[in-house]
Amino acid sequence: MEFVVKATEGRSARVFVEGKEVATIGPRGKAMFSVRSESFGDWKVELRDDGEIRPFSAEITCEGKSELALKIRNHLFFYKGAAYLLTGIPEEVRPADHVLGKRHVSRLDSFPFAGLDEVDRETWGRLRLHRGSSVGEVDGASPQEFRVTLSDELSEIGLPLSAALYLLYNSGQGARGW
Amino acid sequence: MVVIKPNRVGPFPFPKSDPEERKKGFSEVEQPYTKEQVMLEADRCLRCGTPVCIDACPVQLDVRGMMDAVANGDFQRAYHRIRETNPLLGVTARCCPQLQGLCEDACVVRWGGQPLSIGMVQRFVADWEQGGSRQPDPKSEAPTGKRVVVVGAGPAGLAAAELLLRYGHSVTIYEEAQSLGGTAWYGIPDYHLPKDVLTYEAERIVAQGAKVIRGVKVGRDISISSLLSESDAVLVATGSRDVKKLNTPGSDLDGVLDGYEFLREVYGAGLESYLNGNRKDLGSEILVVGGGDTALDCARTALRLTQGHVSVLYRRDEKEMPADPIMVKEAQEEGVEFKFLSDPSEYLGKNGKLTGAIVQAMRLGAPDSTGRKHPEPIPGQTATVRCDSVILAVGRGPDSFLAKKEGLRTGPKGAIAVDVRYTTSMARVFATGDATTGETLVVKAMGHGRDAAQRVHEYLAGLEDRHVSLYEQYYTKHTTEDAYQDMLSGREEETPPD
């Protein structure tokens, strides 16, 4: 499924699937954003990890529920027992070819840890050596339009994950406009 | 709508000297931008509202502020914007692999073209300051009367010391070597990082008020308990040192060298000293074993010293190679040969002197305990090659000497075990950098060093329960909604020049 995130003002955005608007993204506090959708439900995305604002980290909650739906720490998350790496280099891509162009969401099939808290300090520093299989692509012809294509295994969290990808890896409106 | 300029000024990734010429000596490979070029390149920056480039920098270098100032020709403002969080500007500009998971990899211009050449712009600003436009140091807070000992003057130790000085603490650095910089001194060749750049920036940190005691190895010449008796806290930043040992038959032959010791011998006392002294005879046929940046550094150093034939043997394939692909290409341009899926199974010799190697062909099998595909030999597929020297650069772990000597609790591979507060098993002793993580990038070690220094400061100031990370401080200052609106309207607070 492809989600197209189009920035509107500041960090706010609208999300489209097959040309139809399905959701909005908007700020609701410090490092906190709402994702509202009739089709995919309402979500809260906080750019925090255990309460601390951290780069490339987010905690995603389905509105009305107390437990986390997804936690991203330093590009890495676990979902349904599998580890996934955002913007890593999947096996089928040569590192030399990865310096430009689209990025990937990789499923790390052989990742030797079962949860974020188990990952040791050395592994955090060498995450990019873990290659994995591409299960998603992130692309954008310009900063305004951000395309996230995810395979079926991530479809249940497709909208909030796409919103998190937009908030973590794209840039809001800048001092020079769009 | 702002128009995106998709291509960098000059060649991608950066201008380089001619490979046939540069391999004859140790002058810099990367060639700097001119003033006109750097202003044009900086003008490509979109001045993003939430700059992902800064998120991707372990020390939160203010890329956006730098680009805005440089595009307007204001190098003084650019310098102060980036010096705020990075005391080794010229060093990191040169040795960060910016396109590999760091600032340039994160630049949103990448979506539609070539990302900003952040390293080149940073380098210009650093060189501008070093080249005669000396700027004042960042301001420090009033003296606190607290004393901190930093063990190790590598990137983590220097970055930590600088931040602690800025907080007003008294800092004493103990360094085993005579030169400052740790691995950045001896482990990064001069063609990549001229040592006058490192010396200038390290000495600037010292000039901020640090006392440096050189030639003293903590754990051997003085104990941690002695250091604690003269200070309020000790921060250990002893880096990586423990070389991985291979049991390949023939490893004890004369001519089989450890890569780190080789680099230390060439660069440790200064390149000129080595070139004018007793140079090791490497011969003309050299094998380098390994797939990381150190293997490349060894290969390109050996090439420059011998003008011989240098081959890099790596047991995995090119896609699995951890070295920066930009550096791999540079080495190939210079004539270094790469042989992937190859691993020496035995070194051959005559009268104790290396004469050759049996090279085993490998293939990638099932993932091992690290999660990466394990290389395994292909039965019956070997080749015997002649060689005069073999340089082993297969990685190294944290320096475990001090932990063993002082009984600090350790984790995997001998790394000093620390909690989220960077505290060790010994009261008032903190640890950071490669000593706690294993070998990493200079800028990542600096980031760890600064984070640990923040924790030490909070401990000394009794603020442990009110911890605010350096990243959260940056985020709060620059990207919350109020700051965002200020930025959009041009009211963003600027770091004053002095």
Secondary-structure blueprint of this entry?
The complex is a heterodimer of chains A (178) and B (498).
Chain A (H helix, E strand, L loop, with lengths): L1 E6 L5 E5 L2 E10 L2 E5 L6 E4 L1 E2 L2 E2 L4 E5 L5 E6 L2 E4 L2 E7 L14 E6 L12 H5 L7 E10 L2 E6 L7 H12 L9
Antiparallel strand pairs in A: 1-2, 1-14, 2-3, 3-4, 4-5, 5-8, 6-7, 8-9, 9-10, 10-11, 11-12, 12-13, 13-14
Chain B lengths: L18 H4 L12 H8 L9 H4 L7 H9 L3 H9 L5 H7 L7 H4 L11 H13 L16 E5 L3 H12 L3 E6 L7 H4 L8 H13 L3 E4 L9 H6 L3 E4 L3 E4 L12 E3 H9 L3 H5 L9 E5 L3 H14 L2 E6 L10 H10 L2 E4 L1 E9 L2 E15 L5 E14 L2 E4 L3 E3 L2 H6 L22 E3 L2 H4 L4 H19 L9 H9 L2 H8 L10
Parallel strand pairs in B: 1-2, 1-4, 2-3, 4-15, 6-13, 7-8, 7-13, 8-9
Antiparallel strand pairs in B: 5-14, 10-11, 11-12
Helix pairs in contact in B: 2-4, 2-8, 4-5, 4-8, 5-8, 6-8, 9-19, 13-15, 15-16
Gist of the model:
Chain A has 178 residues and is mainly beta. Chain A is built from 2 helices and 14 strands.
- Main sheet characteristics of chain B: 5 strands, parallel
The largest contact between protein chains, plus residue counts on each side, is: A-B, 53 and 64 residues
CATH class of the largest domain in chain B: Alpha Beta
Strand content bin of chain A: 35-45%
Looking at the overall shape, the CATH architecture of chain A is Beta Barrel
Number of helices of chain B: 21
- Helix tally of chain A equals 2
Instruction: Kindly identify the CATH topology of the largest domain in chain B.
Output: FAD/NAD(P)-binding domain
Number of domains in the coordinates of chain A?
Answer: 1
Give Rg of chain B in angstroms.
Answer: 23 Å
Principal-axes geometry of chain A comes out as: globular
Quickly give the structural class of chain A.
Answer: mainly beta
What does this molecule look like?
The complex is a heterodimer of chains A (178) and B (498). By secondary structure, chain A is mainly beta. Chain A has helices at residues 121-125, 158-169; strands at residues 2-7, 13-17, 20-29, 32-36, 43-46, 48-49, 52-53, 58-62, 68-73, 76-79, 82-88, 103-108, 133-142, 145-150. Chain A has a single domain, classed as Beta Barrel (Porin). In chain A, the strands form 2 sheets. A 12-stranded antiparallel barrel of chain A has the order 1-2-3-4-5-8-9-10-11-12-13-14. In chain A, strands 6-7 form a two-stranded antiparallel sheet. The relative contact order of chain A is 0.21. Chain B contains 21 helices and 15 strands. Chain B has helices spanning 19-22, 35-42, 52-55, 63-71, 75-83, 89-95, 103-106, 118-130, 155-166, 183-186, 195-207, 224-229, 259-267, 271-275, 293-306, 325-334, 401-406, 434-437, 442-460, 470-478, 481-488, and strands at 147-151, 170-175, 211-214, 233-236, 240-243, 256-258, 285-289, 309-314, 337-340, 342-350, 353-367, 373-386, 389-392, 396-398, 429-431. The mean pLDDT of chain B is 94.
